[in-house]
Every structure is written in structure tokens, then in C-alpha cells.
Amino acid sequence: MKKAVILLSGGLDSTTCLAVAKSKSFSIYALSFRYGQRHEFEISAAKKIARSSQVNDHVVLDIDLRAFGGSALTDNIDVPKSRDGKIGGSEIPITYVPARNTIFLSFALAYAETIESQNIFIGVNALDYSGYPDCRPEYIKSFEKMSNLGTKAGVEGKSKIKIHTPLIDLSKKEIIQEGIKLGVDYSKTHSCYDPAKNGIACGLCDACILRREGFEKANIKDPIEYAN
């Protein structure tokens, strides 16, 4: 089986992305990050998903982006709530973590080289998303080009790294519908930026709003609980 590194956050998109990779008969090597985010419920979710998906390996790396801050997810900044009509606009929200996908993809690239894999999957989405610059197709294309310029296998011409983004052109509704077809158990996933101490999703942050709207449009009941 071909090997693939999957960036697994424990959220809806990355879990669906993992299911897509499995459906294409890849041997899965999951990679998650404890990066100084506001909570660790997503790490617990990622571990559960990795176990239930029977991945070949699951690495959880510790890096501390709180040392830089600059985001509501890694700094003492309030997470915006109920931003009706403003999600996905021209303004990049304060929940954007500077260079996060570049950092994560760089680790994934190193992992892929180590296990001699040419495939990296990331669940970025350019339609129903919060306006992050590192979720766009042109960004992924540029990172893939860099990957093949800056790796031993790429320079030697033995293989080429491919960054797979199977969800990039799908709406949240379509992502959920695809996941359901592939048997994804969304009750195991965690999307909220600012959950309660017991892990219940706030229901009001961008991630919760996008998730709830996706399930509503798909006419599927969201299996997780919300505080609001």
C-alpha cells in the first residue's frame, strides 16, 4: 500500500480527509500537534479518530506557538462569537494562527521523507472556511513546489511530493455528505475554538457556526452537543 501522511486535527474536515485517503487505499500515518492552542479536546478527538480508523501510526508533536501569540487560539485574545455575515470575508480573523499550515506541512514533509512517502493529505477548504490565507489552492500549489525543491528525493528526481487537498473545492455541506458516505463518525470530532471546560462546543464561534450550517444544509443531525 502507498503511504500517506495525514494532518489530523481531530476536527470535521481533517477526519473526512483521513476517510478519503483510506478510501483510496493509502496506508495512513497521522500527524497531530499540541501547539499551545487554547484547549486539548481536539488532541483527544484526534487520538480517538486515529484509533478507530486503525491508522498505521499516529504521532502527536509538541510545539509552542504561544511563544509568539498573535492569535485568539494561542494568545490571551477573546475568540469572536456570532459573526453573522462576516465569516469568509476579506478580513482575516483573529483566530488565524500565523503560518500554522506552513509549520504543520513542514513537519508533515519531514515525516513523509522519513517514511519514504510521496503523499501528504490536508483537509483545507477554500469555500466554507474562516478566511485563512493558508487554505487557498495557490498556497498549496506553492508549498508543493517548494517541497520538491527542498527535499532529497525531489532533488535526486527519485519521487515527487504530492499535497492532496480532496476537500478544497467542497462546501461544508458536501464535506459532511462525503464523510457520511465513507462512514465517518462525526460524534468523535471536535471543531469548537472555545469550548466549555467539559468540552461542550460553544455554538457561537466561527468553527461552530460553519459546522452547524453545514449539517443543517445537508439535512443531517449534528451528533455533538452545543452550549448555545
Provide a descriptive summary of the structure in words.
The protein is 35% helix and 12% strand. With 228 residues, it is an alpha/beta fold. A five-stranded parallel sheet has the order 3-2-1-4-5, with helices on both faces. The model has no long low-confidence stretch (mean pLDDT 93).
Q: Would you tell me the structural class of the helices and strands?
A: alpha/beta
The strands making up the biggest β-sheet line up spatially as 3-2-1-4-5
What CATH calls the topology is Rossmann fold
Using only C-alpha atoms, the radius of gyration works out to 17 Å
Please identify which CATH superfamily we are dealing with: HUPs
Strand content: 5-15%
Which short descriptors sum up this protein?
228 residues, alpha/beta, Rossmann fold, 7 helices, 5 strands, 12% strand, globular
Would you kindly provide a brief summary of this structure?
The protein is an alpha/beta fold.
Question: Which secondary structure elements does this structure contain, and how are they paired or packed?
Answer:
Elements: E1 2-7, H1 12-23, E2 26-34, H2 41-52, E3 57-62, H3 100-114, E4 119-121, H4 137-149, H5 152-156, E5 162-164, H6 172-181, H7 206-218
Parallel strand pairs: 1-2, 1-4, 2-3, 4-5
Helix pairs in contact: 1-6, 6-7
